[in-house]
Specification:
- This protein is of the alpha/beta class.
- It has a domain at 1-58 and 97-134 and 198-268 and 357-416: FAD/NAD(P)-binding domain, CATH 3.50.50.60.
- It has helices at residues 13-24, 41-44, 63-71, 84-96, 100-128, 146-163, 172-178, 201-214, 256-262, 325-337, 382-397; strands spanning 2-9, 29-33, 48-49, 77-79, 139-143, 167-171, 188-192, 196-197, 218-221, 228-230, 233-238, 241-250, 270-279, 290-293, 298-303, 306-310, 313-315, 346-355, 362-365, 372-376.
- The strands form three sheets. Strands 4, 5, 6, 7, 13, 14, 15, 16, 17 and 18 form a ten-stranded mixed sheet that branches. Strands 1, 2, 9, 10, 11, 12, 19 and 20 form an eight-stranded mixed sheet that branches.
- The radius of gyration is 21 Å and the shape is globular.
- The chain starts with a strand and ends in a 19-residue tail after the last helix.
- 49% of the residues are buried.
- The chain binds flavin-adenine dinucleotide (FAD).
- Residues 10-15, 32-35, 39-42, 45-48, 50, 223-225, 251-255, 274, 276, 310, 351, 353-354, 376, 378-384 line the site of flavin-adenine dinucleotide.
Length: 416
């Protein structure tokens, strides 16, 4: 039996970020995953470090949107009605968090995390020797309808002023200058200036994981479901034998609730699934920025494997077979927006954003299970937040002063 100070279960961006901060504070750490680091949700995301994303992605309380989603005519959100009976409580709780007062509560709790997100990525990237993978330049949120652009700009301006988020409104001509190959029927864009993007999210995750091992951490293959507790210690079985530690971090992303349930603790985690595919730019077309077409629920992200096209939220069982509807609806829109080759450069990929009803992650000790700690539920923003929430949890675990209070992210907040 090999002993460590901490076992981190799950080597996605969140587990890697947590392990990196624990190691930097002198803890001996085993980082355990059943697969390769950054091989699941942290592999296939749009690769955007959203330094502006203080306002949560709630479900709009608009009859038009609700009806469109239920009727299956929208692509930014799709609901699998066969999953409704088993998910109704969680989805409804999520829906209820779309009121102005709930959005305000979540926003206030997101601010300290979002403000730490980019600095923590920059610091970790520097230590890992991969600062060149973080690309400045922000992203463009494009619009086809002048009224939509006006409304969104007014909202963005308010948020920008209150939270000091550098933002610029672009006219159609300014957008065409920034992105000459985008379609001409756009009326303008909001340019969020601070976010960074990456050429490949998995490359960044792997580089951070390599930094963890270079700094003394141990990366192991193993199944988190083998976790057992004897006295004050937890043990997990890995390909290199059993490892034990007094503290264990659950950073299993969309699988986190399964492990907690096995230890008698229920949390209302659900997923918003999403897909991606890649196409090469046709001819000499170049996409300079990551582009978000919110109305159609798609992102066009210029990445190493091609233009990565990602989709919006699919509300269904985490493990239901992949559906083709979201990508099928997304591709004609993407092709209309930017010249793309016809041939997919990679097969479709599917992932699951791990969400809690208030769209805040769970970070901190797990009540009733001494030595068990949570860091999961980062919804649309786990790639952005992994290093920042990793720091927060590591500070709490190692007796430091957390850079912000953990109370909004408490694991037992839904039980209160
Ligand atoms: C289409 C799409 C686009 C997105 N775009 C962005 C974006 O641009 N920016 C952003 O910030 N976020 C984005 N996200 C969200 C982001 O990808 C997630 O929030 C984030 O990856 C979650 O990270 P994680 O480490 O919590 O989970 P994961 O990356 O899923 O890591 C969990 C790990 O646990 C491991 N695991 C599971 N079960 C076991 C077990 N039994 N034993 C051992 N290991 C196990 C898995 O193998 C996995 O490696 C996007 C998500 C999707 C789906």
């Amino acid at each position: 039996m090999i002993t460590k100070d901490v076992i981190v279960l799950g080597a996605g961006m969140v587990g890697i970020g947590t392990a990196a901060h624990l190691v930097s504070r002198g803890a001996s750490v085993a980082l355990v995953d059943r697969g390769a680091p950054a091989g699941e949700t942290s592999f296939g995301n749009a690769g955007l470090i959203q330094a502006e994303a203080v306002v949560p992605y709630t479900f709009p309380h608009s009859a038009r949107v609700i009806f469109g989603v239920l009727a299956g005519t929208r692509n930014d959100a799709r609901v699998d009605l066969t999953a409704l009976p088993s998910h109704a409580r969680r989805w409804f709780a999520f829906f209820r968090n779309g009121t102005p007062s709930a959005i305000r509560r979540t926003t206030d709790a997101m601010v300290p995390l979002i403000k730490a997100a980019l600095p923590e990525h920059k610091s970790l990237a520097e230590h890992a020797g991969v600062s060149h993978l973080l690309r400045p330049g922000g992203y463009l949120r494009i619009f086809r309808d002048p009224a939509d652009l006006d409304g969104a700009s007014a909202e963005a301006e308010k948020v920008a002023q209150e939270f000091d988020i550098p933002t610029e409104r672009l006219s159609a001509a300014e957008l065409a200058e920034a992105e000459p190959h985008l379609t001409t029927d756009l009326v303008g864009a909001i340019h969020y200036l601070e976010p960074h993007s990456v050429p490949d999210p998995a490359d960044l995750g792997e580089a951070y994981a390599a930094h963890v091992t270079a700094a003394g951490g141990t990366l192991l293959q193993g199944d988190a479901r083998t976790l057992t507790r004897t006295g004050e210690r937890w043990t997990v079985t890995t390909a290199e034998g059993p490892f034990s530690a007094k503290d264990v971090v659950i950073a299993l992303g969309p699988w986190s609730a399964d492990l907690l349930a096995a230890h008698g603790i229920k949390v209302p985690l659900f997923v918003k699934r999403g897909y991606h595919t890649h196409r090469q730019a046709a001819g000499n077309a170049v996409l300079n920025h990551l582009v978000v077409d919110e109305g159609n629920g798609i992102v066009l992200a210029p990445q190493r494997r091609g233009i990565r096209i990602t989709t919006g939220a699919e509300f269904t069982h985490r493990d239901a077979p992949s559906g083709s509807a979201q990508l099928s609806a997304a591709m004609p829109v993407a092709e209309g927006l930017f010249p793309l080759d016809n041939t997919p450069a990679t097969p479709p990929w599917r992932g699951a954003r791990p969400c809690l009803p208030d769209l805040l992650p769970m970070i901190g000790p797990v009540d009733g299970a001494p030595g068990l700690w949570a860091n999961f539920g980062h919804q649309h923003l786990g790639f952005t937040l992994g290093p920042a929430t990793g720091r927060l949890l590591a500070e709490a675990m190692t007796g430091g002063t957390p850079f912000t209070s953990l109370s909004p992210y408490a694991v037992n907040r839904f039980a209160r």
